[in-house]
Amino acid sequence: MSDAPDILPRIAWIGLGIMGSPMSENLIGAGYDVTGHTLEQEKLDRLAAAGGTPASSLAGAVRDADVIITMVPASPQVEAVAYGPDGILENARPGALLIDMSSITPQTSVDLAAAAKDKGIRVLDAPVSGGEAGAVEAVLSIMVGGEQADFDAAKPLFEVLGRTVVRCGPHGSGQTVKAANQLIVAVNIQACAEAVVFLERSGVDLAAALDVLNGGLAGSTVLTRKKDNFLGRDFEPGFRIDLHHKDMGIVTDAARTVGAALPVGAVVAQLVASLRAQGDGALDHSALLRAVECLSGTRT
């Protein structure tokens, strides 16, 4: 792919949610021609305001695209937009590159790649980590599965969206690494939440304590990104509990398939599920703090 604006690939972007909207806007800002489709009119209006082209149908969005990017919530939504007479595989042109940036099961990615190959469509699975802030700031970590040649072709596009871009292996590998990422993030948030309750109950200056902890071995991107959420009890979603619940299901199922034991991950998966069952599924995953407060008898 050249940097010359007149020969940049034409992009179709499917799914303009918390992550998809800022990511597509970053591509527009880099000079890409982006046509987008989603179900919410206000998100299509946002795309148009950023300089993109809204499409009223999925088929219309993908028909002339060189690269099609999907960013939707889960495997059922990926299958819904990919398959069927109105789907991507029936309407994209042969030779197009389909990049699925959703977080889905590895097997869904493998199956999609096989089905797309029969249509002459290339596929990469390329889930991301970094949340809404990472999407806005274009500093996402992008873990990719698929053929090396397709990865090489897509890398300039990935470098507009993220800071760390790595091919992890064949189809499905990106999703496997993303599942591991979500395991680490959930356990890290849970540990931070427990520390916050412990520190507050002990009467120390919480803001000072989190600052010094983040400067040492206990520091993490999670603590950096979520510190203000903990301090202000601000759980406006950057990444919803509902989605992390889905991801914990993916990692526990995949681990069972390969025979890997995840004892701590299994506990945190249940804590995420319990928070969702209490009606907090739409909150940011830093709301795991609320579950710890409930267990400690201090939830407000």
Automatic annotation (TrEMBL):
Top-tier EC class: oxidoreductase
Protein name: 2-hydroxy-3-oxopropionate reductase
Family membership: Belongs to the HIBADH-related family.
Keyword line: NAD, Oxidoreductase
Recorded GO MF terms: 2-hydroxy-3-oxopropionate reductase activity
Record-annotated 3-hydroxyisobutyrate dehydrogenase-like NAD-binding domain positions: 172-291
Residues annotated as domain 6-phosphogluconate dehydrogenase NADP-binding: 10-168
EC identifiers of the protein: 1.1.1.60
InterPro entries documented for this protein: 6-PGluconate_DH-like_C_sf (IPR008927), 6PGD_dom2 (IPR013328), 6PGDH_NADP-bd (IPR006115), HIBADH-like_NADP-bd (IPR029154), HIBADH-related (IPR015815), NAD(P)-bd_dom_sf (IPR036291), Tartro_sem_red (IPR006398)
Species this protein is from: Streptomyces pratens
